[in-house]
Design brief:
The complex is a heterodimer of chains A (258) and B (216). With 258 residues, chain A is of the alpha+beta class. Helix content of chain A is 58%, strand content 14%. Chain A has two domains: 50-103; 110-251, Histidine kinase-like ATPase, C-terminal domain (Heat Shock Protein 90, 2-Layer Sandwich), CATH 3.30.565.10. Chain B has seven helices and no strands. Chain B has helices at residues 5-27, 32-55, 64-93, 98-111, 119-146, 155-174, 183-211. Classes of the chains: A alpha+beta (258), B mainly alpha (216). Chains A and B meet through helix 1, helix 4 and strand 2 of A and helix 6 and helix 7 of B.
């Protein structure tokens, strides 16, 4: 009887543990999918650029084929020309389908999400090797407007990666420095911060938050979008420069003007 | 009922679990209720061992200060189930827990009608309270999962699930006629549950420290 009881208890314990593991995996896969899709929808930089390059490659091949068919039809007999034009039309329909696939909307999910998850997935997406960015979580918090928070995270991490790449290009570093993550992301109870080294700190005045001001050759809209997203969440964002390092702060409480 | 090596091991595991749960609760506010539960479990079990030891050798029915000790033990016994139901409602059903504590005090007040509520009557109350608590926890877990009240599973759900499974097994043993003959087995079972809970806490804390995130 005692053995039966112990066996029953052991089986129940095992069932609970296995069920919990399965639940955790399912939940993680679901959330990763949702947040990943939302992050992809928010990405303006490298990933979108890579997708565009692949799409451009496909389109060039297709349009080349259509152009060749039309050119051949001009000097062909009427019956052959009709066939060649049909082929060209079908080829152009393929191009239309490729563009349609690229323009397919990705529906962002705006459900409460921990800030650590948003930043972790953003970093995984933008810095897959995790060599450039370190993430430290002093205290996590849950964000209600996950889409806006992801927009902020993506823009600031993208900016930091671009700035660090600029520094590395202009100032070759030794092997020791290359192994250390150059961007420090930290989550606190109040918000989060992203800190990185910069090549020329004098270029980081207060006007960087204005639309159209770009230091890297981008559109110059990134920080303006960050401010707009912060306004949506009733958050605040600002930056501070110390020596050759800049830190962007995002606070969940509006910053008092000093 | 003496305190054997298995019970001493269980006491130690309860203490370790309370410390680990409080460390986790300090780092992650989602686990504060779990930290409170683990601390309550440890303090309750240690206090009950001391109270039961103080009752040994005193003739029934109890009088005076000995009766106070007896009722204090009853309060802690029901408190353990109240705490379990409360954490299940909190983590799985996202429901308010104050009715649980009202019920806890209500049952205890009923048991103050001593010596009318003693021996077989008290045993029946204990069994009814245990069965009700287990039933409520199972319904709450089922309801919480079916209604998708849990947005994200965490360590707390595993720990609470382990304790509930242990109580289900204990309840099955409690309905057997020779319940008290199974007492060593119940102690082994609770030790297994506590060991799993401690190991899960260590794993969770190590992973959290290594990755900077509690999500496995």
């Amino acid at each position: 009887m005692i053995l039966q009881f112990l066996l029953m208890h052991a089986v129940l314990t095992a069932v609970v543990i296995l069920a919990w593991v399965a639940w955790m995996r399912a939940s993680r896969m679901s959330r990763t999918g949702e947040v990943g899709a939302t992050t992809l929808a928010a990405v303006d930089g490298r990933t979108r650029h890579d997708t565009l390059r692949a799409t451009a490659h496909d389109l060039r091949n297709i349009l080349n084929g259509a152009s060749t068919s039309v050119a051949a039809a001009q000097s062909a007999l009427p019956a052959d020309a009709r066939q060649l034009l049909t082929t060209a039309r079908e080829t152009l329909q393929s191009a239309h389908a490729v563009i349609g696939r690229y323009l397919a909307p990705v529906e962002p999910q705006d459900r409460p999400t921990p800030m650590s998850e948003i930043l972790r997935l953003t970093i995984e997406l933008l810095d897959p090797s995790r060599r450039m960015v370190s993430l430290r979580i002093a205290e996590d918090f849950v964000v209600d407007g996950a889409t806006s928070a992801q927009r902020i995270a993506v823009n600031l991490v993208s900016n930091a990666l671009a700035a660090v790449a600029d520094v590395n290009t202009s100032r070759p570093s030794d092997g020791h420095a290359a192994r250390r993550p150059a961007i420090d992301v930290e989550i606190t109870a109040d918000g989060f911060s992203i800190s990185n080294s910069v090549g020329d700190a004098t270029r980081l005045g207060g006007d960087i938050w204005e639309a159209g001001v770009s230091r890297s050759g981008s559109t110059g809209q990134g920080l303006t979008i960050v401010l707009a997203a912060c306004e949506t969440l009733h958050w605040a964002a600002w930056h501070e420069v110390h020596d050759d390092r800049v830190t962007f702060f995002v606070s969940r409480t509006p910053r008092l003007l000093d | 009922m003496g305190v054997g090596p298995v019970k001493i091991l269980a006491f130690a595991l309860e203490g370790v679990l309370a410390v680990l749960a409080l460390i986790l609760a300090r780092a992650d506010r989602r686990h504060r209720a779990l930290g409170g539960f683990a601390l309550f479990v440890a303090v309750t079990e240690w206090a009950r061992a001391a109270l039961i030891a103080a009752l040994v050798g005193h003739p029934r029915p109890y009088h005076g200060f000995v009766r106070v000790i007896f009722h204090a033990d009853e309060l802690l016994y029901f408190g353990w189930y109240a705490a379990l139901v409360a954490v299940v409602l909190h983590y799985f059903a996202r429901a308010r827990v104050w009715p649980v504590f009202v019920a806890w005090l209500g049952i205890w007040v009923y048991c103050l009608d001593y010596p009318r509520v003693s021996r077989q009557t008290l045993l029946a109350v204990y069994r009814a309270a245990t069965a009700t608590a287990v039933l409520v926890t199972l319904v709450a877990i089922g309801f919480g999962l079916a209604a998708r009240r849990v947005s994200r599973p965490s360590l707390a759900h595993l720990i609470v699930g382990l304790f509930v499974s242990a109580e289900v097994a204990t309840l099955a043993a409690a309905v057997a006629p020779d319940f008290f003959n199974h007492w060593p087995a119940i102690q082994y079972a609770m030790t297994l549950t506590l060991s799993c809970a401690v190991a899960a806490h260590v794993w969770w804390l190590v992973r959290r420290r290594r990755t900077g995130d509690a999500t496995p």
